[in-house]
């Protein structure tokens, strides 16, 4: 009896850990792709070309104005309905990363834009007088200050991302919440939900701590 109970507990823990790993993978890969993509979209949004500006505005408006759950479904089913490509089980995780990255890039783009536009124009002019190129001015002088200013709103989005990873269930990707829900239904036990809630809370506390340390390191930009 004890052996069977131990095996059951071991299986439950293994399933929860597998879901936890998937959630962390979604979180890290989304940040890896959405942060640089957001910066690129911010540049397009601030472009002097009115057509490119329009495209960026439309993209940001659509991504921020429609549910992430719907966007995940569009990314997942589009290859089949538009191009007739057969959807494989392995594409589910890829679709999740694409959907999350496109969505969060729109939010990061607006954060980047606000941070860049908050820098006094005189700093650009002074750097050019000193012989800096536009790229060198941005990455050596402007961008470090932008990072310091945008850390609080970026932290909020990153914390939201931790919780949003649970939306991967909509296209049958078994992350932490999905595993907890399945176990709770099978065992008629609420403890898997408690474990999932604890995971999200601890993960968010860790994210807030790391972002706080980064902000403190950059506190010399005032």
What descriptive keywords fit this protein?
single chain, 222 residues, 82% helix
Count of discrete structural domains: 1
Could you name the CATH class? Mainly Alpha
Specify Rg, calculated over alpha carbons.
Answer: 21 Å
> Can you give the helix content as a percent range?
over 70%
Q: What is the CATH superfamily label?
A: MetI-like
What is the CATH topology classification name? Answer: MetI-like fold
Largest sheet data: none
What proportion of the residues form beta strands (DSSP E)?
under 5%
Tally the helices: what do you get?
A: 8
Shape: flat
CATH-derived architecture:
Orthogonal Bundle
Q: What is the straight-line distance between the termini?
A: 64 Å
Please provide the ordered H/E string of secondary-structure elements: HHHHHHHH
Mean pLDDT: 83
Uncertain parts:
1-7
The counted number of beta strands is 0
Q: What structural class is derived from the secondary structure elements?
A: mainly alpha
Describe this structure in words.
It is a single chain. With about 220 residues, the protein is mainly alpha-helical. It has a single domain, classed as MetI-like (MetI-like fold), CATH 1.10.3720. About 80% of the residues lie in helices and about 0% in strands. The protein contains 8 helices and no strands. It has helices spanning about 1-45, 50-65, 70-85, 90-115, 120-130, 135-165, 175-185, 190-215. The longest helix is centred in the first third of the chain and has 44 residues, at about 1-45. The radius of gyration is 21 Å and the shape is flat. Mean pLDDT is about 85; it is low at about 1-5.
């Amino acid at each position: 009896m004890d052996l069977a109970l131990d095996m059951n507990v071991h299986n439950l823990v293994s399933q929860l850990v597998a879901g936890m790993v998937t959630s962390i993978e979604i979180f890290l890969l989304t940040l890896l792709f959405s942060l640089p993509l957001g910066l690129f979209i911010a540049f397009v949004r601030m472009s002097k070309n009115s057509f490119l500006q329009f495209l960026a505005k439309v993209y940001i408006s659509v991504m921020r104005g429609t549910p992430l759950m719907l966007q995940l479904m569009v990314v997942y089913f589009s290859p089949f309905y538009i191009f007739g490509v057969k959807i494989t089980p392995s594409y589910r995780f890829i679709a999740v990363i694409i959907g999350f990255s496109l969505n969060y890039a729109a939010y990061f783009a607006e954060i980047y834009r606000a941070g860049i536009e908050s820098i006094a124009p005189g700093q650009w002019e002074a750097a050019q007088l000193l012989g800096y190129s536009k790229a060198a001015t941005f990455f050596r002088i402007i961008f470090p200050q932008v990072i310091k200013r945008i850390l609080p709103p970026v932290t909020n989005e990153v914390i939201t991302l931790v919780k949003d990873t649970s939306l991967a269930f909509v296209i049958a990707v078994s992350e932490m919440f999905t595993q907890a829900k399945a176990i709770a239904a099978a065992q008629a036990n609420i403890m898997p939900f408690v474990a999932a809630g604890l995971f999200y809370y601890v993960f968010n506390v860790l994210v807030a701590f790391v972002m706080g340390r980064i902000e403190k390191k950059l506190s010399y930009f005032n």
